[in-house]
Amino acid sequence: MSRTFPAMTSGITSGFGGPLPVAGAVDLTGRTALVTGAGSGIGRACAVALAAAGALVHVVDIDGEAAKAVAEGINGRAHVVDLADPDGIRNLPADVDVLVNNAGLQHVAPLHDFPLDRFELIQKVMVTAPFLLLQHTLPHMYERGWGRIVNVSSVHGLRASAFKAAYVAAKHALEGLSKVAALEGASQGVTSNCINPGYVRTPLVEQQIDAQAAAHGITPDQVVADVMLGRSAIKRLIEPEEVAAVAVWLCGPHTGYITGASLPMDGGWTAG
């Protein structure tokens, strides 16, 4: 026997104070976002996309000229900060509705030769800094009853690769931090998710190509084809704008029930 159920959409709200729209672009008018590592690559793409959606964007980067250039292009605010310095983080704005933890760095070396100072620096920038930024911005999100935390993780937050001990460890830690933020923020209207891209066409990846070539004793072209894309079913690098589109989508009206998730953008890497 079939049954007909009444439509329930009229009682669902978007978290923006109105009914859930059927479709449409994300509107972040009146919201404030903070993006780390926003001077280039994925961070820059996220800053541009969030500004296009209507948000005021704080552009955070250690490269002052890059941060200023991006901020000027989107009418944002530039902040020159070394995320390894807790004092610099504390001086950033706290009245943030959307936090994008994106900043990262890489070092390629076998475990037995991995420099301790590089390992510790990568943890400071990619684990401790997101932790401090959460402490800094969550009170504002809780007060407003709405917030979106987008952690740009990596396929290396779900899988490991040789010669990347610090990066893999940091991304796995970021995954755990994101899930804790999701559990604690659920009752406050705050979601926390990770995006897990494979290799994205960024300066960081371009720098890795030569380092991987030296580590594996192969040519740069072989690094791209065999190392970077060897486990991906889709044989191309990801564009930063593709990652940014997912980041903005996570801030939209249809994703308020998505939290504590890790969203692979890996071309099928983790499917095999």
Task: Give the helix/strand layout.
Blueprint: E1 32-36, H1 41-52, E2 56-61, H2 64-74, E3 77-80, H3 86-90, E4 98-101, H4 116-144, E5 147-152, H5 165-185, E6 190-197, H6 203-216, H7 220-228, H8 240-249, E7 262-265
Parallel strand pairs: 1-2, 1-4, 2-3, 4-5, 5-6, 6-7
Task: Characterize the structure shown.
This protein is of the alpha/beta class and 272 residues long. The chain has helices spanning 41-52, 64-74, 86-90, 116-144, 165-185, 203-216, 220-228, 240-249; strands spanning 32-36, 56-61, 77-80, 98-101, 147-152, 190-197, 262-265. It has eight helices and seven strands. Strands 3-2-1-4-5-6-7 form a seven-stranded parallel sheet, sandwiched between helices. The longest helix is centred in the middle third of the chain and has 29 residues, at 116-144.
Summarize the entry for a quick read.
By secondary structure, the chain is an alpha/beta fold.
Features:
8 helices, alpha/beta, seven-stranded parallel sheet, 272 residues
Overall 3D form: globular
List the uncertain runs. Answer: 1-18
Number of strands: 7
Cα-atom radius of gyration = 19 Å
The biggest beta sheet is recorded as: 7 strands, parallel
- The termini sit apart by 41 Å
Question: How much of the sequence is in beta strands?
Answer: 5-15%
Number of discrete helical segments: 8
What is the helix/strand order? EHEHEHEHEHEHHHE
State the oligomer: single chain
The structural class is alpha/beta
